[in-house]
């Protein structure tokens, strides 16, 4: 009975969103995998990473259905890579290689893959798998783009962008005063990991945490934020549609 009620409500909410203003770009913090596994009674909470990785495939299908062309997902931060138990990090990286990279590179996938983050902190096998998947999807003409933020930290991204801009300007023969005079937000943004992709309109974080944890610090300056109490593997289509409903009901002011 509950499944039937859920299905009916989901279909009704989906119909109500017809004609509503939809985000062009949705960014998501995939949080709560281990807590979901503990809640479900699994002996090893690391199994939540597999369920979380597999669930991304389903969430991307919802995005495509709603015509959302750009999706960015926060998989792991630099701190996750450096400070968490090595076995847990290794398990998460295997899930990225075996589930995310493999599924996105299938011919049936409509998504073109991009990667954002400090790839030097990733294991060689993970870096290689993501590189192959990105190359396999490079010629996609579907118009759908997914960015995997892995080994990512928003502050380090900005530092890297400033460093790259300075190095580029220096190679062109510009002095420090020249660089300072020429510096603009657009010039700096051109050196971010996400250059060439639009800023997110909506950022969703699962697990009930009400913070962005350094995710897309620059890009999300004017994004609408939506915090969802469910853990990522339990994030339902109904929860996703509610986030879109909330977005459609807001009047975006872009800092005005």
UniProtKB/TrEMBL annotation:
Subunit structure: Homodimer.
GO biological process: polyprenol biosynthetic process
Keyword Zinc: no
Biological role: Catalyzes the condensation of isopentenyl diphosphate (IPP) with allylic pyrophosphates generating different type of terpenoids.
Required co-factors: Mg(2+)
Binding site for Mg(2+): 31, 224
Active-site residues annotated for this sequence: 31, 80 (proton acceptor)
Name recorded for this polypeptide: Isoprenyl transferase
GO MF, any single term: ditrans,polycis-polyprenyl diphosphate synthase [(2E,6E)-farnesyl diphosphate specific] activity
Species: Actinoplanes derwentensis
Cofactor remark: Binds 2 magnesium ions per subunit.
Enzyme Commission designation: 2.5.1.-
Keyword DNA damage attributed: no
Keywords assigned by UniProt, alphabetized: Magnesium, Metal-binding, Transferase
Pfam families for this protein: Prenyltransf
Residues reported in the UniProt entry to bind substrate: 32-36, 46, 49, 77-79, 84, 205, 211-213
């Amino acid at each position: 009975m509950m499944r039937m009620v859920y299905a009916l409500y989901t279909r009704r909410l989906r119909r109500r969103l017809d004609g509503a203003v939809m985000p062009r770009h949705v960014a998501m913090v995939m949080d709560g995998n281990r807590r979901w596994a503990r809640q479900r009674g699994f002996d090893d909470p690391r199994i939540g990473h597999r369920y979380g990785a597999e669930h991304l495939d389903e969430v991307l299908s919802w995005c495509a259905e709603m015509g959302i062309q750009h999706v960015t997902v926060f998989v792991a931060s630099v701190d996750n890579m450096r400070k968490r138990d090595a076995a847990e990090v290794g398990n998460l990286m295997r899930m990225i290689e075996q589930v995310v990279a493999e599924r996105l590179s299938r011919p049936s996938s409509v998504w073109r893959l991009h990667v954002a983050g400090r790839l030097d902190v990733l294991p060689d096998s993970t870096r290689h798998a993501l590189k192959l998947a990105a190359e396999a999807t490079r010629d996609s003409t579907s118009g759908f783009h997914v960015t995997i933020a892995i080994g990512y930290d928003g502050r380090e991204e900005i530092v890297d962008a400033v460093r790259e801009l300075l190095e580029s300007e220096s190679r062109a023969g510009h002095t420090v005063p020249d660089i300072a005079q020429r510096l603009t937000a657009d010039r700096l943004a051109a050196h971010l990991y996400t250059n060439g992709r639009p800023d997110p309109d909506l950022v969703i974080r699962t697990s009930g945490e009400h913070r962005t944890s350094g995710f897309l610090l620059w890009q999300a300056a004017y994004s609408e934020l939506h915090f969802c109490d469910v853990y990522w593997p339990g994030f339902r289509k109904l929860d996703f549609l509610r986030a879109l409903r909330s977005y459609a009901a807001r009047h975006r002011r872009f800092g005005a």
